[in-house]
UniProtKB/TrEMBL annotation:
Organism: Micromonospora marina
Domain HTH cro/C1-type: residue ranges: 13-44
Taxonomic superkingdom: Bacteria
GO MF term set: DNA binding
InterPro entries: Cro/C1-type_HTH, DUF5919, Lambda_DNA-bd_dom_sf
Protein name: Helix-turn-helix domain-containing protein
A matching Pfam family: DUF5919
Length: 277
């Protein structure tokens, strides 16, 4: 079942749309005034309903039917991505006939900037297919709690995590390149692998196959996160730590052009050469 950690005007509006209610009907449904609902929606992320209304919204979502839940997840996930910075650049690329990068919807200069605009719960909640490769996969393992993973997988999600081998030579080379003490990145990666193994082990038997974990030991080039039709790709730059590297956000298009397919092929190729745990 879909859950919301903290309701804002953004989620409230998505719920109303998912329930296919007018502002008047939705206000009556919650027992508040139309003006209150309009105020929430106009404030988007900057407005949070009072605690008692947070509970009322939780109840309204819990009582919604399966189709409403599906519409809510679909509307929430990535609703803002198409409106993020560089939308104008996207349109201009289309006008110029340049479709090779037209699926790029945003660029963030650092991982902190990415996390502030697209936190883990916003991009992962409601996902059906999650594929990730990189070094330690901190976004998945440190910013998304175990119980949320369980809910996601019990809801039908399929997850593949591809970690850099903590006992391999490639991670040692990266530690030297980023000037980390020997073994520091390896220890973090082992911790994150244990996190995902714990998530998998706590699932019921038939669901454990929904979580696949693999290792690779090759030169680290990209951190790639594919969540349904969304792709976050971060290049590892020489002498620059991963948290300081830019991240590109892409959304898969109907056509075969664009960068989403490029990074999807990178993931698939690396996965085929990996060692599963």
């Amino acid at each position: 079942m879909t859950t919301v950690q903290k309701w804002t005007g953004r989620e409230t509006r998505m719920l109303r749309h998912a329930l296919r209610m007018s502002i008047r009907d939705f206000a009556e449904h919650l027992g508040v005034s139309e003006r209150t609902v309009s105020k929430w929606e106009a404030g988007r992320d900057a407005v949070q309903p009072r605690p008692e209304m947070q509970a009322a919204l939780d109840t309204a979502l819990a009582r919604a039917g399966n189709e409403a839940h599906r519409r809510f997840r679909s509307g929430l996930r990535l609703a803002d991505v198409a409106e993020l910075r560089q939308a104008a650049a996207h349109v201009q690329a289309e006008r110029n006939g340049d479709t090779s990068t037209a699926d790029v919807t945003a660029v963030f200069r650092s991982r902190a900037e990415l996390s502030a605009s697209l936190p883990a719960d916003r991009i992962l909640d409601g996902a059906r297919k999650v594929r990730a490769m990189g070094l330690s996969l901190n976004l998945l393992c440190q910013h998304y709690p175990d119980h949320r993973w369980r809910q996601l997988i019990e809801g039908g999600a399929q997850v593949r995590c591809l970690f850099l081998d903590p006992d391999g030579s490639a991670i040692q080379a990266r530690e030297r390149e980023e000037s980390f003490p020997a073994g520091q990145l390896a220890a973090l990666t082992k911790l994150n692998i244990e996190t995902m193994l714990r998530v998998r082990d706590r699932l019921s038997g038939e669901l454990r196959g929904s979580v696949q974990i693999s290792l690779y030991d090759e030169t680290l080039r990209f951190n790639v996160l594919l969540i349904d039709d969304l792709c976050l790709a971060q290049a590892y730059l020489p002498a620059s730590r991963g948290v300081d590297s830019p991240t590109f956000v892409m959304r898969r298009r109907d056509s075969a052009t664009g960068l989403y397919q490029v990074y999807e092929q990178v993931f698939d190729s690396q996965w085929e050469r990996s060692r599963q745990l």
